[in-house]
Each structure stands twice: as C-alpha cells, then as structure tokens.
C-alpha cells in the first residue's frame, strides 16, 4: 500500500513570506499577466469563432451565388424584354403614323411655297409676252396662222390637264 504524506505540520511551521515592495510589484505583475492570459484566451476564442463563421459564410455564398446569379439574369432578361417591347411598340406607332402621312400625301405633289409663286410669276410673264406678241402683230390679226397657233397653244394645256385628271383615275382602277 501506498503511504500518504501529511505536510500540514511543516506548512504551519513555515514562515510566511515577508511582504516587501518588490514582492508586491511581482504579485501585481502576476495578476496582470494572469488577467492578460485570460483576455488573450477569450480573444483567441472570439477570433476562432469569427473565422469559423467566416468560413461557413463563404461556403454559403459559394452555394447560393449561382442561384442568385440566375435569378438576377432572369430578372434582367425580363426587364430587357419589356423595354424592347415598349421600344418596338413606339417604332411601330411611328411607322403607322408615317404610312398614314404617305397615303395622304400620295395624291399630292409637295412643293415649297416659293417655287409655287415663282411658277405663277413665270406663267403671268409668259402670258403677258404672248398677249404682247398678239398686239404687236395686229396687222396680221386676221391671219389664220395666228389663230391656229392660239388654238394649238390652248389645246396643249387642255390635253395636259385632262391627262393629269384621267391617268390617276385609270391607274386607281
């Protein structure tokens, strides 16, 4: 059997360590070191817990990043489709409006106002020149040649106007 040693008598006889300032300083340092060790252990535990949480978060993000990317891509595609549909509708509306304007303008010849006024002035000038020629030739006013020229000059615009009216009607049928 093993014997147990009892050191209580020796401990009671031992002299307590005398307190001196150096021993008190060392005891204070030891207390601060013990406190620092506890705080470092606590800090180490916190850092370990944070690193585990960070690793778990990274795993979570890696698993769900693809799902989020697909959802985002689908939403972007839907948004793009709606924007393109609106844009296409606007283009279609403009095309329809332009087609209606073309149909309305199909029977008309567009001409600037200045060109129209210039044509009127030229027509008046030529008419007055024609009249002045007739007046100048009063001697031969009774001549058949003059009346033939007047008839032909009148007949040409009448035929032109008749053709301008009749040809579109014939082409529309």
Q: Could you please describe the fold and organization of this structure?
A:
The protein is mainly α. The chain has helices at residues 8-13, 21-105, 113-136, 144-172. The protein is rod-shaped and about 175 Å long.
Throw out a few tags for this protein:
173 residues; single chain; mainly alpha; 4 helices
Radius of gyration: 57 Å
Number of strands: 0
What would you call the structural class? mainly alpha
Largest sheet: none
Distance from first to last alpha carbon: 136 Å
Helical fraction equals over 70%
Query: SSE string, helix = H, strand = E?
Result: HHHH
Q: What's the tally of helices?
A: 4
The geometry reads as rod-shaped
Strand content: under 5%
User: Mean of the pLDDT scores?
Assistant: 77
- The low-confidence parts are none
Brief description of this entry?
83% of the residues lie in helices and 0% in strands. It has 173 residues and is an all-alpha fold. It starts with 7 loop residues before the first helix and ends with a helix.
Which helices and strands occur, and which strands form pairs?
Blueprint: H1 8-13, H2 21-105, H3 113-136, H4 144-172
